[in-house]
Structure of Synaptoporin-like:
Amino acid sequence: MDTANQLASGGTFQVLKLPLGFIRVLEWLFAIFAFATCGGYTGQLRVSVDCMEKASSNLSIGIDFGYPFRLHQVSFEAPACEATRRERVFLIGDYSSSAEFFVTIAVFAFLYSLVATVVYVFFLNKYREISRAPLIDFTVTVVFSFMWLVSSSAWAKALSDVKLATDPDEVQLLIPACKIQTNKCGSVHGARWSGVNTSVAFGFLNFVLWAGNIWFVFKETGWHKGASRLAGGASEKQAGTFNQQPYNQGSFEQSGSYSSQGQPSEYSEVGGPTSYSNQM
Ligand SMILES: *[C@@H]1O[C@H](CO)[C@@H](O)[C@H](O)[C@H]1NC(C)=O
């Protein structure tokens, strides 16, 4: 009933204008771009083998590969430069673990941020009532930030190795006929990388989004509310006991003595956070 009324007035979608909700929407959009550009990749390189006996040459050998980059399973037929005999040549390397890890993280990040967006829009009051919900949200957000960083780094490294392993100049060296001086091998063209390069960029962009949202989710947790309350109490108490010291409010050495409250008071001095929490 309550939700229905809010929905009718369009009020519930206001949460999407807050950083917390807005970043969640960007998160699942960019997660889609990340796994689509990586998981949907196919590329082709082309080499030529020009044998001394022209009849057995093949000047356009296409080699297709793509996600999940199990290059050791990618093979092609190259002329052996002996009559019409051909031989099967395999590429080298298996980069599937990094590629699949990246896509898996992207898919789960997409699902989580989509569900979180739905929860914020339709169940924001429940989300704030159940104190455990923001805590879980906070923990999951921290974990995904870390996972985006790790998987994007791993994928960036794997992709640079894939580029090397599928370089036509390198692939030529795998063809036995090309080891014979009298046969000439060349590269016709390499694979296009622009699409899959953006997957790495989207990966790191997602890391920035998730890491940035840690702060906004943190503000929904009881820790932040408890912290500002504690810090407020502490500074009042501090002012009462040490009011002969004019600089006690801003002094970090002073707050250092309150080891359990040092952290919160540091946050409260930032200024920004308190004004944000008033907005919400
Ligand atoms: C050259 O190799 C391709 C495979 O990339 C094959 O389809 C084509 O038939 C070959 N051409 C000749 C002349 O053998």
Q: What stands out?
A: The chain has one domain: 3-222. The radius of gyration is 29 Å. Residues 69 and 96 are 5 Å apart (CA to CA).
